Amino acid sequence: MKCIVLAAGYATRLYPLTEKFPKPLLPVGGRPILNWLLDDIDTFPDIDEHIIISNHKFITHFENWEKNQKLKNTITILDDGSEDNEHRLGAVRDILYAVESLELEDDLLVVAGDNVLDFSLAGFVKYMQEKESPCVMCHEENNLEKQRKTAIIVRGENGVITSYEEKPQNPKGNLAVPPFYCYRAQDVKRIREALNDGCGADAPGSFAAWLSRHTKEYAWIMPGKRYDIGDRRSYDEVCEIFSPA
């Protein structure tokens, strides 16, 4: 199983902090945001490689970061070739780029590189292995304004997703889906099919939404909190929460 980290965004809402520096490498609590994820994932016995997808603008920062890492698993840094926000590939095309350029035929754990979690993702990977199906994470979200800015699902019997909507104006449920996904190798082979079928390329959840309409997909309820770093205010709040004692 491979871990793919989506880190090719330009984080324009965090300018000037991220105008010349990638958001996943900003420090939180004494270590880069990215390490909050990989320090956890690196302990999973079934993960054997971390694949970081960056853009051409920030690739050197990730290559320099990699030189100082002492993770157990191999780290592969990919440059998706884009140089600005207007010409970005989009998260789904970045996943496809990694799969095709590295000729991957593995199950995947796909994570957004700009989130901090206060729980381990080990349970999420185990859940996918138990269900033997693609899986997403979810948490309760009852604020309508926030529901309209994210993916919302309805979780049926045994965790099966019965409805999956990206940024709905009139949500059918109240379970939000953050950008963390587990895909089987056979699911990954359908990414190009999904894009050709009209699947959105920008939002990372677009492929998961498409897949839920073509196969049985499950939702794992998060056991803790996820901190999404989107703007300067949210970044400052996370830094305060995780500041060293």
The level-1 CATH class: Alpha Beta
Proportion in β-strands: 15-25%
Query: Would you tell me the overall average pLDDT?
Result: 93
How far is it from the N-terminal to the C-terminal residue, by CA?
Answer: 36 Å
CATH topology descriptor: Spore Coat Polysaccharide Biosynthesis Protein SpsA, Chain A
CATH H-level superfamily: Spore Coat Polysaccharide Biosynthesis Protein SpsA, Chain A
Helix tally?
9
3D architecture notes:
The protein has nine helices and 14 strands. The termini are far apart. It is 29% helix and 24% strand. Strands 1, 4, 5, 6, 8, 9, 10, 11, 12 and 13 form a ten-stranded mixed sheet that branches. Strands 2-3 form a two-stranded antiparallel sheet. 42% of the residues are buried. By secondary structure, it is of the alpha/beta class. It has one domain: Alpha-Beta Complex (Spore Coat Polysaccharide Biosynthesis Protein SpsA, Chain A), CATH 3.90.550. The model has no long low-confidence stretch (mean pLDDT 93).
In brief:
By secondary structure, the chain is of the alpha/beta class. The chain is built from nine helices and 14 strands. Strands 1, 4, 5, 6, 8, 9, 10, 11, 12 and 13 form a ten-stranded mixed β-sheet that branches. A two-stranded antiparallel ribbon has the order 2-3. The protein has a two-stranded antiparallel sheet with strand order 7-14.
